[in-house]
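pinned: reference chain
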Amino acid sequence: MTDATANPASDPPAKASGRKKLIALLLPVVLAGGGFASTYLGLWSPAAMLAPKGDATVVPETVFVAIPVIELTIPGGSGQNLILAASIETDSAHQAEVTHLMPRVLDSFNAFLSGIDPAAYDKRGVLEIIRAELVTRSRYVLGNEALKDLLITEFRFK
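pinned: its structure tokens
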């Protein structure tokens, strides 16, 4: 019978040949050199591979359409005037539509501003509330596509 309990650790280790070691060392160097050469020659770009893929749609240019200055007398006998200047942010495709509908926008702004209680102007946060209401009224007149934002450039009492 043969001895089944032979110790495998006692077997001499198989030596790798010199060629296998040389191939294992030279292969990464050759591949790295080929990658550098192809990038250097402009065959491909690692930055282009990492860049997000996006379609080439053209984004319309942002345009600001100025609203004529609104000056209202605050009711209540105080004799104060409210002066409001604003701009509508839109894109170049809707600029003509916004300009054409400006009288309706002004009408909706004047109707809202003249209905505010005079005591409300002294409260904290009234400008944010007024801006939100004006944006809502602008969206009602112009639509969601034409109006990007409303910028209040002047809000003061005189």
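why pinned: The chain is about 40% helix and 20% strand. The mean pLDDT is 84.
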